């Protein structure tokens, strides 16, 4: 070993010891804060968002912002665990993008709670069997997840956070060659998100939709002749011991799925927030314009407007709306009061920090 290399390694060892001491000091302070909370929510999305924004703004590299965020999310997760290990439900099984989203937001899950459906995620949080739930709500390519929207209308839960997860699909198989593949299994949305690649590289392969990409990976794992492939994540490739025949096969390189975090408690303002609500009005000319006018008057930015059948009457719809700001902000609060007076239904689903990518 050269003298210069030894010097560098000695410096790294010294820094590691300093980091260990500082992280434990942080953990002790987090434990003290837990005592001060006196039974309040352990996970505070608004506070964690403020911490991560500040750190990424002050980051001078060479670590990327994503790397800094991942490191400190893991630190915060382990500090929270000194108070209580949070249980988080998500759409399983292991290897789904829902699990990946939950891990990203909560800094890794030591005791993940897998659910067989989006309905079960809602039930688990509502009944108090878990602390939080993570559900997909929309994809940048394929649009809204209808079941999640329907359940948001019926639940008393609050949205306390959102996760924006870049979705990268891979072709996984026991085979070593794409040429051997005769059947491709995947969730229907994943098949749709990769249809151009499949048309170009596997035009004659049969495409079979299944309940999840993890289930597709399990089918590929149990295939003995190598003729079956799954579209799934790199995490699924590791879990099911599959070969990655092709990476990033999604048609849109910016393909992203948005997930919501469900909780029984509200969230305080973080300084950069979003509010989600559902609103309905009578089917008369100009009704939508009248609904949007209070937002325009108070200069509240509308970021999403999604219609959904109300399931109450034929051809009657409700609208899912996302706006910038927190419901406690003066302008947003005033706009919501006016909107409530003009609508036949208004339900605030939650105010929460804008996703930190």
TrEMBL record:
PROSITE patterns recorded: ACT (PS51671), CHORISMATE_MUT_2 (PS51168), PREPHENATE_DEHYDR_1 (PS00857), PREPHENATE_DEHYDR_2 (PS00858), PREPHENATE_DEHYDR_3 (PS51171)
GO-annotated cellular components: cytoplasm
SMART domains assigned: CM_2
Residues annotated as domain Prephenate dehydratase: 87-264
Main localization category: cytoplasm
EC number: 4.2.1.51, 5.4.99.5
GO molecular function, one term: prephenate dehydratase activity
Pathway assignment: Metabolic intermediate biosynthesis; prephenate biosynthesis; prephenate from chorismate: step 1/1; Amino-acid biosynthesis; L-phenylalanine biosynthesis; phenylpyruvate from prephenate: step 1/1
Subcellular location(s) per record: Cytoplasm
Domain ACT residues, every copy: 276-353
InterPro entries: ACT-like_dom_sf, ACT_dom, Chor_mutase/pphenate_deHydtase, Chorismate_II_sf, CM_dom_sf, CM_II_prokaryot, G/b/e-P-prot_chorismate_mutase, Preph_deHydtase
Site (Essential for prephenate dehydratase activity): 257
Keywords noted in UniProt: Amino-acid biosynthesis, Aromatic amino acid biosynthesis, Coiled coil, Cytoplasm, Isomerase, Lyase, Multifunctional enzyme, Phenylalanine biosynthesis
GO biological process terms on file: chorismate metabolic process; L-phenylalanine biosynthetic process
Pfam families noted in UniProt: ACT, CM_2, PDT
Substrates-to-products reaction catalysed: prephenate + H(+) = 3-phenylpyruvate + CO2 + H2O; chorismate = prephenate
Keyword Ribonucleoprotein: no
Domain (Chorismate mutase): residue spans on this chain: 1-87
Coiled-coil zones: 5-32
Reported function: Catalyzes the Claisen rearrangement of chorismate to prephenate and the decarboxylation/dehydration of prephenate to phenylpyruvate.
Name by which UniProt lists this protein: Bifunctional chorismate mutase/prephenate dehydratase
Source organism of the structure: Methyloradius palustris
UniProt gene name: pheA
